[in-house]
Write a structure and sequence with these properties.
- The complex is a heterodimer of chains A (252) and B (246).
- Chain A has a single domain, classed as MetI-like (MetI-like fold), CATH 1.10.3720.10.
- By secondary structure, chain A is mostly helical.
- Chain B has one domain: P-loop containing nucleotide triphosphate hydrolases (Rossmann fold, 3-Layer(aba) Sandwich), CATH 3.40.50.300.
- Chain B is 37% helix and 24% strand.
- A six-stranded mixed sheet of chain B has the order 5-6-7-3-8-9, with helices on both faces. A three-stranded antiparallel sheet of chain B has the order 2-1-4, with helices on one face.
- In chain B, helix 3 packs across helix 4, helix 3 runs parallel beside helix 5 and helix 4 crosses helix 5.
- The two termini of chain B are 30 Å apart.
- The relative contact order of chain B is 0.18.
- The chains are: A mainly alpha (252), B alpha/beta (246).
- Chains A and B meet through helix 8 and helix 9 of A and helix 3 of B.
Chain lengths: 252, 246
Amino acid sequence: MKQRSVYTIIAPILILLVWLISSKLNMVSSLFLPSPEKVAIEFFRLITLSEGNLLIDFLITAIRVFAAFIAACTLGIPVGLLMGYFKKVYDSLEFVVEFFRAIPPTALFPLFLLFFGIGDLAKISIAFWGGFLIVIINSMYGIKNANKLRIKAAVIMKASKVSLFTKVILPEAMPQIMAGMRTALSLTLILIVVVEMFIGTSVGLGHRIINAQLVYETSEMYSAIIMAGLLGFFLNKMFMILERRFVHWSGK
Amino acid sequence: MIQIDNITKVFQDPKTEVLDRINLHIKEGEFISIFGPNGCGKTTLLYIIAGVVAPTQGSVLINDSHPRKSDVGFIFQNYSEALFPWRSVIKNVEFGMETRNIDKRKRRKIAESLLKKTNLFKYKDRYIYQLSGGMKQLTAICRALAYNPGVLLLDEPFSSLDYSIARKMEMELLRIWEETKKTTILVSHNADEAVLLADRVIVLSERPARIKGIVDVELPRPRNLDMLFSREFFETRNKVLRLFGR
């Protein structure tokens, strides 16, 4: 354990060193890449401000991501389960789902703007859409790939249709459903940040990044980027803890 | 009692004849081994007896009723894939009782007593992936016995265990059989195992499997591993192998 923790900090230290050296030697214009200490100072200034605090942007972005993610899961999982379990549902929806999945959600910005305006609803809807399709596909394949031998074992033990689904097929699908949810979580974060850059808002990490760039406040821009990275990192870590708890058998 | 009449199985797509007119009468409490080459259709025959695969022709009756209406305990070769990894050992054993709506307290009691008899009790709260191969298969046997089925079907249950564990498990199975006297069918591609455990060994041919012959095993009960070196064992096994190789 101890040895591993030493290795985990080597790469971050190296990156910081390269950054430090290149700014000290003026290899890159300080306008584009301010020194690490400058960014650190700016970062701490921004999270202690009484007005325009970076943590507010962090929070708003996180709330938008959660809203989109929860909606994607509550609607996507049932649809995926139905598609995976009932051949008829699969046959009627498979083409549509595959087709929409082939369209990058970002290509649908204008369409969502038309329908939902430029408020939070539009932003969350776009992110929801991207996550929704991923959750559907993964839940569907989770059901379809359920181990046939276990199903046979349960049938021999006289499991009814309902208990076969709830006690065997659903747990079988859980690892893949959760893997889909994790991918959807990352994608909703990406989409929310991108959308915040381009669709009118006054708060949010994407908005903060693009605004700082427009006025050449690069230290602020890096601070907001780091904040976005932290958000993604913590969301992923949290989800991994949930996964280990709920699908503890996965990969064993 | 199991009555197998003229069972023929042909799989479509690609058309494969697997079983060819199998006739067999198995008495109540009898221990039967089915011995045959790999891929000859032994597993399919067990699935038909268990009622999860329909025969193309012929019929199976377990105590005069259709297999799907009778309780059957099935032990798979691939124990890791057949047990439920999201359930603990004891919850696996309880599964067949849950589907029969046996109440929780009774379920727990039956499962605990089975686990005690097989020395698995102290692992009852472990998950399946935390067990060794032998313990997994023992859990699978407990799971199959828990709802007290009339018939026990075993599909090469010990073939993926190493030699000494497999012999130990065979003795464990015999002990359970002596105690419960369940009608048992063991599919095996190990002649020693087939002979040592059974009252009769059914020798099957290559695909499509026909019954090549039936060898009675006259070894006394209860059996033990020392019998592997006895003259009677040797002669019976050679009879089986000669029939098999013909």
